[in-house]
Design goal:
Layout: E1 2-8, H1 13-25, E2 29-35, E3 40-45, H2 50-58, E4 64-66
Antiparallel strand pairs: 1-3, 1-4, 2-3
Amino acid sequence: MAQYKYDVTMTCGGCSGAVTRVLAKLQGVDKFDVSLETQKVTVESSTLSEEEILAVIQKTGKAAKVATA
């Protein structure tokens, strides 16, 4: 199982809620964590690529990118 980390610009609970909703519905996501405080999203998946997950997060309208170390 791979773990991917993203920097996502979220300004309120509604923003983090939108990201949470799309990840909860996305088939292939085994586990995820959305942190409004740190503006980070961590996703574990054994079937989806880093780019596929990023595209889904970006569809919420939030600025998102793959996190650098």
